Amino acid sequence: MQLSYRIRMILYNILLFAFAFLIVVFCVFQGTSYFFINQTKDVLLKATQDSTLFISQELKNLHSSESLDNQFIANSLYLSKNISENESHRVLLFDTEGNQIADSVEETSIYNILATELTLSMTENAPVFTLKSINDTSTAYFTSPVVIDNTVIGYIGFTYSMYEMDAFLHVASIFFAIGGLIGLLFLVIVTLSFSRHFFQPIKDLTKISKEINNGNYNLTIYYKHVDEIGDLTHAFNGMVTNINSVILQLESERKRLAGVLASIDDGLLAIDKNGNIITSNSYIKTYFNVSNPKTIYDFQHQSFLRDIFDSLKNGKDHISEEIDCNDRNLLLIGSPIREKGFEENYMIIIRNMTAARHIQEEQRKFISSVSHELRTPLTTIIGYTDMLTRRQVVDQEIITRSLNTINREGHRLLRLVDNLLNVNKFDRAEFDFKKTNLNIVLLLSEVVEQMQIKASQSDIEINYVSDELPEILGDYDRLQQVFINIIHNAIKYSNSGEIIDVISAIEDNHIVVSIRDYGPGISEIEQKRIFNAFYRVEEDRSRNSDEGGSGLGLYIVKQIVEKHDGKIDIVSQVGEGTNIIVTLPILSVLIYGGESDEKRNK
Ligand code: ATP
Ligand code: MG
């Protein structure tokens, strides 16, 4: 049975008390007995002296010629009776040989109850005292030589009942028993209440330790006394505070780390040697559709992750591989995490390369398209200049046509370079707008007039209709570029003999310009992409293979329109043509628009 510390302490106290109590009882009883025995010895020695004197006188008074020891034997009964009366003890007399010659109580008894003491007295020639218990009563047995005129004439013996001592010890034992019981009771009560007081802080410590075990660290023990328990509680409180602050620190570190992990743009998996996931971030769910994975084996459909884990476990230091997973291009980078004093763990980083690969693809297309774009006009220009110089052409018509072609191709090159420069500026957010009040009808008329020359070459007619429109605030050159690019596309993608409708009107405080062609149209999927830089639907779709394009026209259009707080929409169906709609706000107009007049007069 396991006893509690408190019960053990109470039992120890009881044991200690009982031990001390028994020592006290023993000493008291021994002391009392010693006192009574000494007193009895004195009394019996005195009785011996008195008796010897009495015997001597009685025998001398007889005036007998017999020896003293014979007279002692002859008168022994008388003497014993008288001595017994005087001393009120039982008196036994013995001759010099040790034979009992008289007993004041039992005259006929032949059994010598003092035989042992008498033998000793005879040997040592001295008084002998012993204490015996007869019928539960302590009795002193005493023998002594009777010496008269320096001669031992016989022996005298007494039996002396020590009932006083017995009575005293009896009463004392009753008192001791009652006192002991009261003492014990008192001891138990005091120990109990003291131990409650003593154990309370220990109980508190235990309770708080359990609470701490359950994760509650905001606890302190209150103990008002300055003593060892006070020191213990103080140290304990300090320890709890320290643990609490360490835990808070760890928690904030953990949160910070979780924040870092969450803000990383890559998926991250940290795995221990047994394949348990130590940490992962939200991209793991995004990429692999596995929530809260506990082990690497939770990725049932992603065997490539398990393969990387196995390779790392087998000692590979760096793994990098690209895979296609759920329409994504993922780069997986695996490496071991080695830290001194810690088991080796592993980390797999999953990087989404889809956009990067897309950009790479776009750039590849761009480079091939730009090279093609640069190459076409340059080949034409070089061809014509070669022809003019080498063949020494004199026909004025051929010379004029050739120069016109060289000029047109030069402009095409210039437009391409301009577009490239603009895109570069847009990307670096450096584009500088010079906004003035401008008349959009005038601007569009100029553009249509300019583009009609080009359209006529393919027998295409541009119709421009407009309401009367208020002035708007905008960059004249840039907005011209917007409509040139759109109409240029419309011409490029129209069949010869078709028409292009340009309409400008006012709607809900906005100027709406629509450029409608009847060309091949653009599918819904392509409509979402054609405003991206370098995007072209098909490399070879344009009607006129001479035209080509770099896929920058509509990107530039969108950037300029948005920088005017406007928007661009597209309504198109494959086979039915395309309608590009530009909406510009007419809210912000300069009050003193001197510059706009300038433009109008251009
Ligand atoms: P660039 O304008 O830089 O010389 P581009 O005309 O090819 O080259 P964008 O003007 O940006 O480039 O047009 C992007 C793509 O949208 C074109 O390649 C074309 O496929 C499609 N597109 C644009 N306008 C029309 C249209 N009116 N009809 C049919 N497709 C069009
Ligand atoms: Mg274009």
Explain what this protein looks like in three dimensions.
- A hairpin with a 2-residue loop joins β8 and β9.
- This protein has helices spanning 5-61, 68-74, 76-87, 115-124, 163-213, 228-263, 283-288, 303-313, 354-390, 396-427, 440-457, 476-492, 524-527, 553-563, 594-600, and strands at 90-94, 100-103, 128-134, 137-148, 151-161, 267-271, 277-280, 319-325, 328-337, 345-352, 436-438, 461-466, 472-474, 499-507, 510-517, 567-573, 577-585.
- α5 runs parallel beside α6 (228-263), α9 runs antiparallel to α10 and α11 runs parallel beside α12 (476-492).
- With 602 residues, the chain is α+β, with helices and mostly antiparallel strands.
- It folds into four domains: 5-170, PAS domain (Beta-Lactamase); 264-352, Beta-Lactamase; 357-426, Helix Hairpins, CATH 1.10.287; 432-601, 2-Layer Sandwich (Heat Shock Protein 90).
- The protein has 15 helices and 17 strands.
- The strands form four sheets. The protein has a five-stranded antiparallel β-sheet with strand order 2-1-5-4-3, sandwiched between helices. A five-stranded antiparallel β-sheet has the order 7-6-10-9-8, with helices on both faces.
- 52% of the residues lie in helices and 20% in strands.
- The site of adenosine-5'-triphosphate has 22 residues, from α12 and α14.
